[in-house]
């Protein structure tokens, strides 16, 4: 998504874009989505302040159950765009300062747009958090499939014993060696 800044010299301009967008580096966890971008450009001589708000929907795959769902991401960004480098502002020190290449008046918003959406991306993609209903969990979790062959980590032993005792207590059974004081 690009904006031609050469025509924006005196007054604020507002733009609205809708375009397909991919979040790179997610592999098969997300497909191509559609982003709606609202941009305001305020000119000040050879500088422009660019503010953007983005809302996008992407087809994701749940990290727990691998079920497809549509997730919504939102974000915003602000840039100071310079027609030429100036000694008072160093674009290397800030991601929010952009110096246009010599002879160019076109600003590409794809990078700031993706960055704003990445900041809203949850660590774990969950169909339940996206409102797609309760997550059924990993394949086989409801039926207990695959658990017989798995070796238990010995660190869970005390917790498993506590669970067994609590379940037995709930059912009213006394366990051998149980000194809970019941007579």
Give the topology, please.
Blueprint: E1 2-4, E2 13-21, E3 33-44, E4 47-61, E5 68-82, E6 97-99, E7 106-108, H1 110-120, H2 157-170
Parallel strand pairs: 5-6
Antiparallel strand pairs: 1-7, 2-3, 3-4, 4-5
Overall structural class, as computed from helix and strand content, comes to alpha+beta
Mean pLDDT: 80
Strand order of the largest sheet: 2-3-4-5-6
Count of strand segments: 7
Poorly predicted ranges (pLDDT <50, ≥5 residues)?
Answer: 142-149
What's the SSE pattern? EEEEEEEHH
Fraction in beta strands = 25-35%
Question: How large, in whole angstroms, is the Cα Rg?
Answer: 27 Å
Q: How far is the first residue's CA from the last residue's CA?
A: 77 Å
Shape: elongated
Count of alpha and pi helical runs? 2
Could you explain the architecture of this structure?
Helix content is 14%, strand content 33%. 15% of the residues are buried. Mean pLDDT is 80; it is low at 142-149. It has helices spanning 110-120, 157-170, and strands at residues 2-4, 13-21, 33-44, 47-61, 68-82, 97-99, 106-108. It is elongated, with a radius of gyration of 27 Å. It has a domain at 2-120. The protein has a 5-stranded mixed sheet. Strands 1-7 form a two-stranded antiparallel ribbon. The chain has 2 helices and 7 strands. With 183 residues, it is an alpha+beta fold.
